[in-house]
Specification:
The protein is an alpha+beta fold and 260 residues long. It has one domain: paralog of FGE (formylglycine-generating enzyme) (Alpha-Beta Complex). Helices cover 20% and strands 18% of the residues. It has five helices and eleven strands, in the order H-H-E-E-E-E-E-H-H-E-H-E-E-E-E-E. The N and C termini lie far apart (52 Å).
Length: 260
């Protein structure tokens, strides 16, 4: 009996040392239209940043509770140039490479890609994530500046960002560590267009459940920072915006696929 109790205790200690994501459920990844997606479960989080953090800007305030009520699939990486060309037949990117993220695409270009991909797949499942869905997935359960913690010295393990300044380029996707939910390049490489119109005061009136942003506006939101940006501009909560017609060499996008 004593031996059995010892074995049971040892097994308990071993099991408790295994991370939750391994012990309870593997990260689910599936491919749709040649693009790999990670399943993101429904849940609630605190969106935006606390006023005590000097890195915060007014557009990130107030910090507020948001609940994503339905699970969804999100692209494991940003859409690549190869994936773009397979649908659109051309490649607008400045820094060419099959497995680099597509860039020099504006918000409307991303919508055209999605329209064609949905037609090709026979449905309406693909779209851009909302700003709330994007931040929820980027945080991956964290409450820190970055998905892995607060230390910018560790950011290079997870992101391509402004160490090379304007002399650098975008990089192949998926070559840095993923966040805890299996998503690569949520910090850095290229900014990512999201679905929402931009309003700097939207957080003051945002609904708790599945916020979708303002009904109209002049600018669209993009998130995540880029290969040009400084570490402070790659924080999970940082909000940027641009005209929907803007095309630059450091803005691309990531797809969401709804679960039907």
């Amino acid at each position: 009996m004593k031996l059995n109790n010892t074995i049971t205790l040892a097994l308990t200690l071993i099991t408790s040392a295994i991370p939750w994501c391994v012990a309870q459920a593997e990260i689910e990844k599936k491919a749709f239209a040649g693009i790999r997606f990670v399943r993101i479960e429904a849940g609630c989080f605190m969106m935006g940043k606390d006023t005590e953090l000097k890195e915060s800007s007014e557009v990130e305030l107030p910090q507020h509770r948001v609940c994503i009520e339905k699970p969804f699939y999100l692209g494991e990486t940003e859409v690549t140039q190869k994936q773009w060309e397979a649908v659109m037949g051309s490649n607008p990117s400045k820094y060419k490479g099959d497995y680099k993220p597509v860039e020099k695409v504006n918000w409307d270009d991303a919508q055209e890609f999605i329209k064609r991909l949905n037609a090709q797949e026979g449905g309406k499942a693909f779209r851009l994530p909302t700003e709330a869905e994007w931040e929820y997935a980027a945080r991956a359960g964290s409450t820190t500046l970055y998905s892995y913690g607060d230390d910018p010295k560790k950011l290079a393990d997870y992101a391509w960002f402004g160490n090379e300044g304007y002399h650098g380029t975008s990089k192949e996707v998926g070559t840095k560590k993923p966040n805890e939910w299996g998503l690569h390049d949520m910090h850095g490489n290229v900014w990512e267009w999201v679905q929402d119109w931009y309003d700097p005061n939207y957080y003051h009136n945002s609904p708790e459940k599945d916020p979708k942003g303002p009904e109209s506006g002049q600018y669209r939101v993009y998130r995540g920072g880029s290969w040009v940006g400084k570490a402070v501009n790659l924080r999970s909560s940082l909000r940027y915006s641009g005209l929907p017609v803007s095309r630059t060499s450091d803005i691309g996008f990531r797809l969401l696929r709804e679960i039907e």
